[in-house]
Amino acid sequence: MTEHDHSHDHDHDHDHHHGHDHDHDHDHDHDHDHGPSAEEFERAQAEAIRRRALQQIRQYPDPALRLRANEVEIFDEALMNLVERMIGLMKDAGGVGLAATQVGILQRVFVFEPDEDGPKAIVNPVLSNVGSDKDSDEEGCLSLQHVRVEVERPTKLTLSGKDPEGNDVTHDLEGYGARVVQHELDHLDGVLIIDRTDAASRKEALGTLRPRPVLTEPVLPR
Ligand SMILES: [Zn+2]
Questions:
Q1: pLDDT of residue 213
Q2: Does residue 104 contact residue 64 with C-beta atoms inside 8 Å?
Q3: Which end of the chain has the smaller Cβ count within 10 Å, N or C?
Q4: 85 CA to centre of ligand 1 in angstroms
Q5: Which residues, given as ranges, of the chain have pLDDT below 50?
Q6: What pLDDT, on the 0 to 100 scale, is given for residue 79?
Q7: Apex 191 CA angle, 152 and 188, nearest 5
Q8: What confidence score (pLDDT) does residue 212 get?
Q9: In the chain, what is the greatest distance between 2 CA atoms, to the nearest angstrom?
Q10: Under a CB-based contact definition with an 8 Å cutoff, are residues 92 and 49 in contact?
Q11: Which residues have C-beta under 5 Å from ligand 1, the single-atom ion?
Q12: Is 184 tagged catalytic?
């Protein structure tokens, strides 16, 4: 059930930089008395940050999103830096999870933050104790902008793997948290939400995706 009846005009990229292309460092010398309010300014700034983050996240149909990521074997500073960068992007983009494949890195790593507990990272994740109960809910994806589709997933599981330092970690998850980590683990196998929804929703989603410009640079596997 899609209650979002978003009008399908995807031209709402009204970039606010018409006359002025430098959004920063302009000295505030406007002499009109009602400029944007503090909230408007903050909102515009958050939106600029979100867009900048999304531009660094591979967008469908980027081929990197369809590749299977490799097991991580070396736990080094580069891995820590990757995790840090991914957590920053996830937050800036307003997401609750981000997989390395979404930034073009084919390593089995994802970050997630389904609750107020703070962001977590998991390397070489594996699911176990997957419960038989399933639940369907709408999901979005930072790589499939403007798409929301129903996805059915088990509601309970255990996620195990390593933290970026190479220590074993285990998370028992239910509900939303379980959903988020299954979504992210799918990314590491090249699976997207459009593969996990019904045919009608997939068709609608692909229609939504088709007219979008590709926001990323050309893909160069690293
Ligand atoms: Zn996603």
A1: 57
A2: yes
A3: N
A4: 16
A5: 1-26
A6: 98
A7: 115
A8: 53
A9: 64
A10: yes
A11: 141
A12: yes
CA 65 to centroid of ligand 1, rounded, Å: 9
Q: What is the pLDDT of residue 122?
A: 98
Strand order in the sheet with 120-128: 97-99, 109-112, 120-128, 156-162, 168-174
Q: What is the pLDDT of residue 36?
A: 80
What would the DSSP string read from start to end of the chain?
-------S-TT----S-SS----SS------SS----HHHHHHHHHHHHHHHHHHTS--TT-GGGGSPPBPP---SHHHHHHHHHHHHHHHHHT-SEEEGGGGT--BSEEEE--STT--EEEEEEEEES--S-EEEEEE--TTSTT--EEEEEESEEEEEEE-TTS-EEEEEEEHHHHHHHHHHHHHHTT--GGGSS-HHHHHHHHHHHTTSPP-SPPP---
Gap from CA of 31 to ligand 1 centroid (Å): 45
- Find out whether 145 and 83 touch, Cβ atoms under 8 Å: no
What CA–CA distance (Å, rounded) separates 61 from 146? Answer: 14
Are 171 and 117 spatial neighbours (Cβ–Cβ below 8 Å)? no
Q: How far is CA 203 from the centre of its chain?
A: 21
Please answer whether residues 180 and 95 qualify as being in contact, where contact means their C-beta atoms are separated by less than 8 angstroms.
Answer: no
| 140 touches 147 (CB < 8 A) | yes
The residue annotated as part of the active site, out of 47, 184, 204, 217, is 184
The CA 138 to ligand 1 mean position distance, Å, reads 12
State the amino acid at position 164 in one-letter form. P
